[in-house]
Amino acid sequence: MSITTKNGDKGYTNLINDKMILKSDIRIALLGKIDELSSYLGLLKSEIDDLKIKDELRDIQKNISTAMAQVAAGRPDKYYLSPDDVIEIEKLINKYEGMYISQNKFILPGENRISAIMDICRTVARKVERQLIYVDSTYPIEESCKKYFNRLSDYLFAIARYIDFMEEITSKVKESLKAEFTSYGKEKVLNLELAKALLEKIEGKAAKIGLPVVIAIANQWGSIIAVHFMDGALPGSYDIAINKAYTSAIFRLGTKELGQMCKAGQTLQGIDNTNSRIVIFGGGYPLKINNVVVGAIGVSGGNGEQDDEIALFGAKLMEEIN
Fold first, then answer.
1. What does residue 233 show for φ and ψ, rounded to 5 degrees?
2. pLDDT, the chain, mean
3. Residues 62-87: what's their mean pLDDT?
4. Distance between CA 217 and CA 310 in Å, rounded?
5. Using H for helix, E for strand and C for coil, what is the string for 90-158?
6. What is each CA distance from 130 to 26, 83, 100, in whole angstroms?
7. Could you tell me how far CA 160 lies from the centroid of its own chain?
8. In CA terms, which of 34, 199, 268, 277 is 20 to 30 Å from 299?
9. Residues with Cβ < 8 Å from 117, sequence gap 6 or more?
10. Coil, helix or strand for 159?
11. Which residues share a beta bridge with 286?
């Protein structure tokens, strides 16, 4: 069946409990704005690498779909957002506000692509909020729904500024590391000096997200060159970080990717049973110089996603300085 029905050619459409509504109806305009917002959030979700933020955006899309159902059905008693949904997004706002340095200046969007898309989403969220208030004067909208869209624009502002801040910090880290690398990196080896410089930058990344970890760097044979134990890191993380670096070095793979290949029916099924040092969950990545694996990094101290995020940060730093 074609999606082209031609039923709306005369300027009318249907809602869930209301038929033959003019397409100029204020509810249809509101639904269009919410749909536009969800589409922009989808674009943002497809562009961003951070898995936690992806999950947050996915939850937000689900919540605004509930808001769309409320408007379309005219049933705030059946389709609604709860006060807990508002509290949850307020927690996210507070989290991201605490992760960047606030600046008393006018914000010009466009410092980087991700934050620019976030700012577009923010302005569309404001449009939705204004349209919600307008519709509410005729067709009641429940309070948590109106509050949620107000907080959503604040969330998008806070997270955009966090992304800008992290991009600026990362850029400075790359330049600093590149300067240290060029003084001795022509040998195409991962030596102690470069390992120490890399450890310092990776610790900064872990500190920014408030996570004390153990960071291990190995050479291409899996032998450890240097280990950094942050204050507050768990003692048990030491061996795990070392083994992640070892695993990633000898297989030339990220430990998370290796874990996928070890599953039943996959290429390396059972390989983790051949050596007690092999780790098959996130937190280990190869380190490359001029696209050649010269070692590996292992991080342990958070959950799998957090360790993987920090280790990937280190691997990308190495790739981008040469």
1. -70, 150
2. 85
3. 90
4. 13
5. HHHHHHHHCCCCCCCCCCCCCCCHHHHHHHHHHHHHHHHHHHHHHHHCCCCCCHHHHHHHHHHHHHHHH
6. 12, 20, 28
7. 12
8. 268
9. 40, 43, 44, 47
10. helix
11. 296
SS3 86: helix
Beta-strand ranges (E) seen in the chain are 12-13, 21-22, 214-219, 224-229, 284-289, 292-300
Segments making up each domain of the chain, as ranges:
12-167, 183-320
Helix (H, G, I), strand (E, B) or coil at 9: coil
| CATH tag for 12-167 (out of 3.40.50.2300, 1.10.10.10, 1.20.1200.10, 2.40.420.20) | 1.20.1200.10
Average pLDDT over residues 191-214: 86
Q: pTM of the full predicted structure?
A: 0.58
Mean of the pLDDT values across residues 22-41? Answer: 90
| First CA to last CA distance, the chain | 54
Equal fold, 12-167 vs 183-320: no
**Helix, strand, coil % in the chain, rounded to nearest 5:** 60, 10, 35
Q: Which CATH superfamily is domain 183-320 in?
A: Haem-degrading domain (3.30.450.150)
pLDDT in tens, 251-305: 999 999 998 898 888 888 888 888 889 999 999 999 988 788 999 999 999 988 8
